[in-house]
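W.,

You were right to be curious about this one. When I first looked at the sequence I had no strong expectations either way, so I just let the prediction run and decided to look at it fresh. Below is the sequence, 251 residues in total, followed by the output.
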Amino acid sequence: MFLNPFPQFIMFDLDNTLAVSKQPIDAEMASILANLMRRTRVGIISGGGLEQLEKQVAAQLPPHADMQRLYLQPTSGAALYTFDGMWKKKYEESLSDDEVRRIEDAIETAVQETGVVDTATPSYGERTESRGAEVVFSALGQQAPWEKKKLWDPEMKKRHLLQDALIHLLPGFEVKIGGSTSIDVTKRGVNKAFGVRKISELFDIAIGDMLYVGDQLSNGGNDEVVKETGIATHAVSGPDETKQFITNLLA
């Protein structure tokens, strides 16, 4: 039960919640989100960088969408951008050059120790990418097609092995499973729960008036961490279910 009749802020995971992994939202989702933005503020939180969130969501919205009611939180909530004619940074928990090097070295060690990634096989783009506030390791490469990604680790066993190895190697950092083939590393305590709390703090919105929608809210999923804030949550299995949920909510 929300403190007000309708959530004052609805936060969405991106990949496999609003869109297929790294693909733009479709026209129907864009229209539904624009309608939702007439009623409330909407946030998108993802392990991707700002450019990815712009490309996948913001650039797909119809001209009448109220962009000032859209909030982008790239790099798993380590940064926030709001729109005022252009995207403007509200905060960013950036990693130092030394921290990035430590993380990249640890990723290389974890990959060797676990053996879950065949590094002799060419990847689809770079496997490791620094995004300012986050370092992301994508087992098949940053540009791997969805058909390949969904077959790589359907039971999350490989990602859990990598995550456990990195937690041991990087005790001062936050290590989370990202997308279907990725591991995200940020500063300690900087995760999607941090992103929820920053929205509440910066815009004076009670967490009891917020809602989080994601496809990985179950135990071990990359959205599960938001539950520690007390935010209301709704689990979906993919974009089609998200569309139906928003449509029902608006009705």
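Here's what jumped out at me. DSSP finds seven helices and eleven strands in the chain. And, maybe more interesting for your project: The mean pLDDT is 94.

Coffee later to discuss?

I.
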